[in-house]
């Protein structure tokens, strides 16, 4: 298994809260600026993967909440991307 695939597999198993905590840790370390370039690139890649996973989880929850909140019991598909524009 490649490192990228390994990171993706780990991200799919992690909770939203844990992913956010790891992402915050990465951001703090990168903001300090004393990380060697190669390590910073690796950390950035990991952070981007965690960010994508968090976004995916939030999008999924938004869709579930939209279905739950329909008072009449009708399920209406909503494209959240179009609403943001």
TrEMBL record:
Family matches, as SUPFAM superfamilies: XseB-like (SSF116842)
UniProt catalytic activity: Exonucleolytic cleavage in either 5'- to 3'- or 3'- to 5'-direction to yield nucleoside 5'-phosphates
Superkingdom in the source lineage: Bacteria
Broad class of the protein's primary localization: cytoplasm
A GO BP entry: DNA catabolic process
Statement: the UniProt record of this protein carries the keyword RNA-binding: no
GO molecular function: exodeoxyribonuclease VII activity
Keyword annotations: Cytoplasm, Exonuclease, Hydrolase, Nuclease
GO cellular component: cytosol; exodeoxyribonuclease VII complex
Localization in the cell: Cytoplasm
Protein EC: 3.1.11.6
Subunit structure of this chain's protein: Heterooligomer composed of large and small subunits.
Function per UniProt: Bidirectionally degrades single-stranded DNA into large acid-insoluble oligonucleotides, which are then degraded further into small acid-soluble oligonucleotides.
Family (UniProt): Belongs to the XseB family.
Protein name: Exodeoxyribonuclease 7 small subunit
Organism per entry: Alkalihalophilus pseudofirmus (Bacillus pseudofirmus)
Protein's gene: xseB
């Amino acid at each position: 298994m490649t490192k990228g695939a390994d990171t993706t597999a780990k991200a799919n198993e992690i909770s939203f809260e844990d992913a956010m905590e790891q992402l915050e840790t990465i951001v703090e370390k990168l903001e300090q600026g004393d990380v060697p370039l190669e390590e910073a690139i690796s950390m950035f890649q990991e952070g981007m993967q965690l960010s994508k996973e968090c976004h995916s989880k939030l999008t999924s929850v938004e869709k579930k909440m939209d279905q739950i909140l329909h008072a009449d019991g009708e399920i209406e598909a909503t494209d959240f991307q179009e609403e943001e524009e």
